[in-house]
Task: structure prediction
Amino acid sequence: MQVNVSTRHGHLSPASQSKIANKVSRLKRYFDRITALNVTVDLGNQALPAVEIVASAEHFHDMVSHERAAQLWRSIDGAVQKLEQQLRKHKEKVRDHKHVQSGRRV
Result:
């Protein structure tokens, strides 16, 4: 799985970038078909930093989560939590779809 961390309108230290990459890489345990995670941190508004996470998975469309909070780490945690919910819901749909019996009877 490939993790990309980029910044708009500012700069993050390499330590912060690696911390973000470690936090986001935990999403792999919710859905193992994730191929890439792109994290964009927008520091244009210092009072409300925004975070966007895009998860690319094989055989499925990209999942996106946005979060804006007063502190950078809260916005990262919020975006990760939103993406966790999306991945759980998708995994349940895939798992339940395989076990649904058709309504047709012969």
Notes: The first strand starts at residue 2 and ends at 8. The mean pLDDT is 88.
